[in-house]
Amino acid sequence: MNQNYYDYVYVAICNLKLFSGKQLNLLKDLGLVLNHREFIECIMNDYDFNYVLSKTTIPNIKRTIDSINSIRENIRRILDYADIICEDTSEKEIFLISTESDEYPFHWKLISGMPNVFFCIGKKSILKKCNTNGAVAIVGSRYPSQYSKDVTREFTAEITNKDVVVVSGMALGIDGIAHATTLQNNKSTIAVVPGGCDVVYPHQNYDLYQRIIEDGLVISELIPGTQIIKQYFPSRNRLIAGLSDCCMIMEAGASSGTLHTASFAANQGKNVYVLPNTIYSTNSLGGLALIRDGAKILLNTNEVIDDIAKNVYERLSLYPELLDDFVEAEEQKNEEYYSPVTHNLREYNSKKIPEIKSKLNISPELVTNEEFKIIIKDILTGKSKCMDELIRLLPINLGKLSIILTEMEISGEIYSDGENYCSL
Amino acid sequence: MSRKQKVIRLYSGFADGVIGIKSEIEISHTSGLPNLDIIGLCDSSIRESRGRIKAALIASGYEMPRGQITVNITPAYMHKSGSAFDLAIAIGLLMVSNQISCKDGLEIYAEGELALDGKVKGTPGSAIRLSSICDNNQNLLVLFPSDEIDSAKCNTINGHAVTCLKEAIYILNSSLESNSYTINDTNSENIYESSGIDLSLLKGQEKTQRALLIAASGWHNLLLIGSPGAGKTLAGRILLSLLPPLTKEEIREVYSIINLCESPQTPLTATRPFRYIHQSITPNRLICSGSNLKPGEIILANRGILFADELCEFNTKILDLLREPMENRTLSMSKDGKTHVFSSNFIFIGATNPCKCGMYMEPGKKCSCSPSLRHRYLNKLSGPFLDRIDIFSELHMIDENALKESISSDNLSLSNEYREKVKDVWNICRERHKGHKEFFNSTVKEENLAELFRADKETIECAANLARINGYSARGINKLLRVGRTIADLNGDTDLDKSHLMEAQIFKNRMIKSTLN
Fold first, then answer.
1. Crossing angle, helix A232-243 and helix A258-267, to 10 degrees?
2. What is the fold of A106-333?
3. What is the ipTM of this complex?
């Protein structure tokens, strides 16, 4: 029988909850089988595991023996189910990739706990690109601040210029922006989704999903058609962390799911970069806590690119066979690696502030609009305030304030979400 | 054998939608089997009047005429209902049977429901009915129930208010001079009472105070978004206190509708209507019931305020019903193949929480709603609906200092002061659009926009700039300019200016938009 067909049978068995990856690992450790395909082959050919297994002294071995017995009993049902999955996937143009496929991510082979088989839609060649060009996970809050959105756009564009694959979760907010920016630059992106890979979640990202399956790749370890359950989210995050060479956290609240991705990445020995933000932004406190716990601070993309380059270089020198398809692409890429760190800190007229403040106290009517702008920018830096609060803080009437605020917004000095104003 | 027939004519009225129609009543009396027949597409409330009339005639000391009597209420092709024809029919019966007589050439208009003991009572819709004979001359003798004096006043009627059938007949026989019922200007101030809630109670909410003032000055629709308890409902009532009293013409318009729905004794008032609707309202109750054309809340809110609390809890279909009246300021209903146009020129105020738990706008992460929940919550407000709202303002819970000030504030006449300002702006607008019916900045028709938006090049450029940055539609720019015009009027400036647009921009819908994107 076709070897690929064994993959489907394995998926069917796992999905019917008759067998698990852990139990397969046990068999592997005992030296009984090499991989899941061999296991299925043994089952199909009625190889008797029970004799060997019953001799071992591993605790709870009984459960594995029971599992194998029940697989034997239900073999008809399993094969039928495998046929259904097989038909369904070929109809929807979904690929099934297993540890034995060429495309199986190299990263996952080095980490335990990654799925033996998974499904994907789109360009599967991108998986190989991860090995040769490197991949970065860009994740963050579903409801980011304007600042994080802007930085995500800027940094994603810079990183994708180096042809690095962007991995994210296709959620609202940062994830979506990362995917969209990458696609805009005609670069490769991978979305790891929490349901089946043909299930669009969240529905607001339907357009994005269509674009990703056109030019990128959507991955899921669950069989097609599986609906979203909240419990899948952390395990999805584990795959995102696993696929990438390093992880960029753009914004994370104190109890955000993004923190899972960070901790998976850290456990897998990957660098975690966190975009710094002010302590007044409550939706960034989780990210700031990561910095306290030793994550790296994301000041620009150079460090990240260096990091990825180092990873890719090590990988390729250890496993030169990965290079086969992509030698050319890699050569192009090696050029601009060590660009100098440039970071422009914003300047503003901090000297003038005390002077204007004293003027405000003595004769507020003499303060010009320009001077008000400097003061307002100072107040709003890092903190967001609504109009009523500003009126309370400053001796200014609403008409004048609204003119100043709108002018500042047009010139891009401050941002507004419609209610609160803030500056960067 | 020829039969003797006698026919007499007199007048009464009925309401067709919101139009009063003067109706001629013909009564013929011939010998024959005693029978009283009332024809002319009457519903059962009119046909039942036979019993009331008979009893009232006897109670007042008269006789029910014998013989065959036919009462024809014209125009015969229109449906009529209500018990207001009783008095006219009773007087007609007495005349046709020669129990009373009156001067030749005198036309009689009578309306009112008869009680069994001969008392005359008012019925709903009197103001509309009497509008068919408003400003009548002395040749038409008008008799109406004393309950309906207010209706007569707002239609400027020369006539007599009567309390019972006997009194009506006494007036017919005597030649008393008619009294003139009308609203005089001093009167209109007397019947105006301020809503009693002062603007100063919104201390610390400067943006909303300003929004209310602009809304009142330009007759702009308004949406308030705020935390629970921040004063959204209060703000609605405060807006009422900012609106100048109704004019004479408006009093007639408003009262005739109120009178149609509520008891005839409802007093005449110059205070603008304030209608409060909440999420359990049905389409019939909101718009107008199609079967009997009973006006719904949006028609009752004409010339006043329609306040929708907890807007996001409303059924989306109900909200979309509001679109036509909010845009056209009228409502058309079809009944029996005839279209009735009601005027529904109100200021719409919506109030909503920013999210399900309501705490989204409070600092310190008090909100427990997920982004998708917030999206779903605010998504009930459709884009086209929000497009029709000119001014958006947010309310926050106020801190203790402002709270102290608002409670201990001694200036409780801020509303009165602001009302004068609003009055001035209205006068400016009225002057600008002399000869047009719609003069408010938000209601001026498209043909007259050139005058409204007169501005220099720089201002137009600024408007285009704002539109480009924020992605406004043509209607969006139009609304921005209209609000800007109102701000200019409030500041006393003749031409639209950049700074006005900048201020108008602050009141644009951005908070909801940023959530929904």
1. 50
2. Rossmann fold (3.40.50)
3. 0.74
